Amino acid sequence: MLKQKKGALEISFKWIFALILGAIILFLAIFLVSKMIKTGDTEQSAKTSKNIGVLTNNLETGFASGVTNTLSMPVETRIYNDCVLDENFGRQRIRTSQKSLGKWTETDLEVGFPNKYYFSSTPVEGKEFFLFSKPFEFPFKVADLIYITSADKKYCFINPREDIEEEIDYLDQKNILLGNNCTGEEIKVCFSGSFDCDIIVEDNFVTKDGKILYYEGDALMYAAIFSDVGVYECQVKRLMLRTIQLASLYKDKENFVGRTGCSSNLAPDLSALMNMAHGLATSDGTVSGNLASLMFTVDEIDYKNTGNALCRLW
Fold this sequence. Notes:
Layout: H1 2-55, E1 69-84, E2 91-100, E3 103-104, E4 111-113, E5 117-119, E6 124-137, E7 141-150, E8 155-158, H2 162-171, E9 176-178, E10 187-191, E11 199-201, E12 205-208, E13 211-214, H3 218-226, H4 229-258, H5 267-281, H6 292-307
Parallel strand pairs: 5-7, 8-9, 8-10, 10-11
Antiparallel strand pairs: 1-2, 1-6, 2-3, 2-4, 6-7, 11-12, 12-13
């Protein structure tokens, strides 16, 4: 009788040990698989962010080509547009998050570009995204601005200027429609004289989400329409930093060509532009509201440079 009890005890202990060991092995297996999935998701997010940068390279030739690039994802994706001012020209950062097993993967891994300027909401979400660009000139070309929108988010442009309407027609981007093609479910972007709108575009400012974003030129107008306020303000400061560096280069160029007797006499104006742009770029307040203060100098530089055909600097 004692031997039977002892044997039963040994069998029970073996079963308990086997169950504990099996549970430990199963836990480790699940842990390792989840780590591998998370690592894979992180790597995929990094690759996606980098691919966005590569895709936009052929957009940096100006708006004249009128081409829309499409970015298609295999799963629902969020693109986070981060703008920072911690370097010479600041830095464009992109971070993505993708849906995996019904949940959004989260990662702090970002890909950065010192020479790109993306304007979008953040995050912008979907499986298909549209991208197009337009050059920002102030008065020389500063950079190509790139606009990122989701195919799921449609815009209806109501009563735009004739030239803007022609651009939208030529662009033929599926989620930007003109008034006569709208269904009423889109985000209403109304130009002067329109009412009951989500976004209102005036001559030099855009009103959206209760905020006013000032702009100069159509490139920044589109940026204000498609961007979050924080993204827009930060990118405009980055553009001012780049303006300073380019103005300095053109000053050096004028000194060089001046030795040959060809002078545009733009050095004082370029210095003034650099000083004012520096004031905006380092301002603690909203930079876009003070853009108009530079326009007299910008227009004067453009007039002098264009009028001096033999000694133009750009």
